[in-house]
Amino acid sequence: MTAADLRDLLAEATDLTIVCHNNPDPDCLASALALGRIAAAAGVDERRILYSGDISHQQNRAFVNLLDVDLASLDPATVLDRETGSLLAFVDHGVPGRNNRVPEGTPVDIVIDHHPHEALDARFVDHREDVGATATILTEYVRELDVELDATLATALLFAIRRETLGFLRGVTRAEYEGAAFLHEPADADLLRRLASPAVTGATADAIATAIENRSIRGSTLLSNVGWTSERDALPQAADYLATLEGVETAVVFGIVDERVQLSARSTDSRVHVGDALADAFDDVGNAGGHREMAGGEIPLGIFADPAADGETLCDLVETVVVARLADAFGLSDVEGEAETEE
């Protein structure tokens, strides 16, 4: 489907609800912002961007605050009880109940995503696994539909493309470079610098330090349990760092956040698809998956352990089950493990 098809669908709408995935990142937020602008240009006066989870990563908080993104918490009832002409859109995710709090089976009108999916069901679907960011697709729409591109929107989309591709080093395609060239001039360079270097909280630094201290390596795969933490977004940051260690090609970091086990994985091993591996390991008990080089997941805590156990015991039980499942998914059962810590 084309950008013109999207515009025509939006032109029939009375209002638009854009749902972000849980704990939305810059790619999701920028895509939602751009879709809202496209809808406004098509004559949709009532628009809202909803999300579930937390915006706790310092970069995500800076993105929302510095770009003044108008967000509201998702109430599942608002997406179930919709009148004729009210459209529901997903950006950077695609299936109700997977990485979002939308009830399974909810009809969706618009899906724009670059993550792997077997099948997507919506009136308008643009699903491109071959591009590096969902923001790349939205940038293409903005350009083709001649939507007004101010500094805020250009900065949001350019930063999202850069962040999702790790500075044009991961999963990047020609489309990302073309999109960046289009966005470069109207973007705010000072704001881009501020978004790239937000302040880090002490709690985040502590969680990353725990991930480093608790690392264990089996072959070229590193696993680390940070235990109980309030800093969910420290997990992907720790995984990014640990994946750069000498001899490490795949890093998986996990921890307990509230009542869920959260996982984040990174890999440079061409033989490994970490999204498929996490899905194989945990899809029967939660939501997990992603790209070949980057993936994540979340699983209800009660699936793995006795809720009546004390904190330390519960953490140990979770580690035993999660490591066993990861070992099976990554083929580590026959690889001798070695705990590695700094003196």
From TrEMBL:
Residue stretches making up the DHHA1 domain: 227-301
A GO term for molecular function: nucleic acid binding
Database matches in InterPro entries: DDH_dom, DHH_sf, DHHA1_dom, Oligoribo/pAp-PDE_c-di-AMP_PDE
All residue ranges annotated as the DDH domain in the record: 17-161
PANTHER family from the UniProt entry: BIFUNCTIONAL OLIGORIBONUCLEASE AND PAP PHOSPHATASE NRNA
Protein name: Phosphoesterase
Organism expressing this protein natively: Halarchaeum nitratireducens
Lineage: Archaea, Methanobacteriati, Methanobacteriota, Stenosarchaea group, Halobacteria
